[in-house]
Specification:
Uridine Diphospho-n-acetylenolpyruvylglucosamine Reductase, domain 2, eight-stranded antiparallel β-sheet, Uridine Diphospho-n-acetylenolpyruvylglucosamine Reductase, domain 3, 19 strands, Alpha-Beta Plaits, about 35% helix, about 475 residues, alpha+beta
């Protein structure tokens, strides 16, 4: 089908490549998968697919949680995980050029050797790739202070479409300078587009100097997640900006501890974990002020951790929450984001939704920026529990919209959030998005059925 390119047709291997980690998102049966190593191979695949009308579904590590990398029937899975070279680290201009298959933690380690830092740090950083992070505009623990993926993508190369004869063109977008407003921001358009407008084959990233100051960890224990949410709002009112502010409920801590035995205790119903990276006395004062804000909002205790091993264990637990629950059974993970002042109300709403649907919900969150990840847990094979979780999922989306928020902060729309996105955005905005898709991909071969389009064209994941 694609001469000279590593092509997979084995049914079992294709089945493993046909979906990401989104629970219950539908996945079709691909005709083949190709493991490209160069931009020329990607161009060849896209040209052939356009000629024959075959959908192309890009895939990285498959760690997504919205169905954005799921196959449609008869498609070609374009596996970019072997395009994993770090092409350049420019220490003079604080820039790196990388291929889409580079794993985030590998990138961080490589630039650290040069005294530099790449801040975006999703919990999946040990496994997820830069291509997938660009596709969903991923954030992570440090995004509260340092921003999300889009803030670090200066430019990229993508294989795109256009008129039918132009499919397979490789175009460079953006720049490598700090400033640049020459024309429309096409780079920003492709970041977060989930592979629906083209295939990203190279990314130019902004870097920062490595942090020199020691991180100060502040921990607050609360009688419930709503009280912890109130502490987030109080911290914002006081003008505090920690580098990290994460929320974990008791279920999260206990589940991780039962799996990894990190030496954690879970006496409180909820914990806030914060890190402050200010310099010298100012950093010490900010850490103290943060602990005081926690206490003022109802913390049963709040202190700066003096044990670096304990602090590291707590943040390791935060990163392990999702895989810890996933090993116990199906997990449907939310990704709503609300204004920080609305965090307490949103957490209250989630508790009510769980009670109404008889659904077990564990909560973890990038609380400092209002990005909540309630996880609906269901026993394997329990259809009633599955239906309850899916109903709760949709109700949480509606509650977030009502609170002035969005249905996805960083996981992407994919398949699971299409209905929610259509409830969130005005008709004119949806029409503009569809017009962009129609213009840049008139054959509708780039990851079709994701993000935009008529929901009636797709089968409902709830069935």
């Amino acid at each position: 089908m694609f001469p000279g390119i590593d092509t997979v047709t084995d049914a079992d291997v294709l089945a493993s490549l046909a979906h990401d980690e989104a629970e219950w998102a539908p996945a079709g049966k691909p005709a083949a998968a190709v493991r490209c190593r160069t931009v020329d191979e990607v161009r060849q695949v896209v040209r052939a697919a356009a000629r024959d009308g075959i959908p192309v579904v890009p895939r990285g590590a498959g760690t997504g949680l919205s169905g954005g990398a799921n196959a449609v029937d008869g498609c070609v899975i374009l596996d970019l995980s072997r395009m994993n070279r770090i092409l350049e680290i420019d220490t003079d201009n604080l820039v790196a050029r990388v291929e889409p298959g580079v794993v985030i933690d590998d990138l961080k380690a490589a630039v650290a050797e040069h005294g530099l830092w790449y801040p975006p740090d999703p919990a999946s950083a040990p496994w997820s790739t830069i291509g997938g992070n660009v596709a969903t505009n991923a954030g992570g623990l440090c995004c509260l202070k340092y921003g999300v993926t889009r803030d670090y993508v200066l430019g990229l190369q993508a294989v795109v479409g256009g008129p039918a004869g132009d499919y397979g063109t490789a175009v460079r977008l953006g720049r490598r300078t700090t400033k640049g407003v020459s024309g429309y921001d096409l780079t920003g358009l492709l970041v977060g587009a989930e592979g629906t407008l083209g295939v990203v084959t190279e990314v130019t990233l902004r870097l920062r100097p490595a942090r020199r100051e020691p991180l100060r960890t502040v921990v607050g224990a609360f009688p419930g997640v709503v009280a912890a949410g109130a502490a987030v709002a109080e911290s914002t009112r006081r003008g505090l900006q920690p580098a990290v502010l994460e929320l974990l409920d008791r279920a999260c801590l206990r589940t991780v501890e039962q799996w990894k035995h990190l030496g954690l205790t879970a006496d409180a119903e909820a914990l806030l974990l914060a890190q402050v990276d200010g310099a010298g006395a100012a950093g010490d004062a900010e850490a103290a002020a943060l602990a005081e804000a926690f206490r003022a909002a109802g913390a049963t205790w709040a202190e700066q951790s003096t044990d670096p091993i304990e602090a590291e264990a707590l943040f390791a637990a935060r990163r392990l929450v999702y895989p810890a629950f996933e090993r116990l059974g199906p997990v449907l993970t939310e990704d709503v984001c609300v204004p920080r002042s609305a965090v307490p109300g949103m957490l209250t709403a989630i508790e009510g939704i769980a009670a109404r649907h008889g659904c077990r919900i564990a909560t973890v969150a990038h609380a400092g920026d209002g990005n909540l990840h309630p996880m609906m847990l269901t026993p394997a094979g329990d259809d009633a529990a599955r239906a309850a979780a899916q109903a709760a999922f949709e109700e949480i989306l509606s509650a977030a919209i009502a609170a002035g928020g969005t249905v996805t902060g960083e996981h992407g729309v994919g398949l699971l959030k299409r209905g929610g996105m259509r409830r969130e955005l005005p008709a004119a905005a949806l029409a503009m998005q569809q017009a962009i898709k129609d213009s840049l991909d008139p054959l509708n071969i780039f990851n079709p059925g994701k993000v935009v389009g008529d929901p009636a064209e797709l089968f409902e994941y709830r069935t």
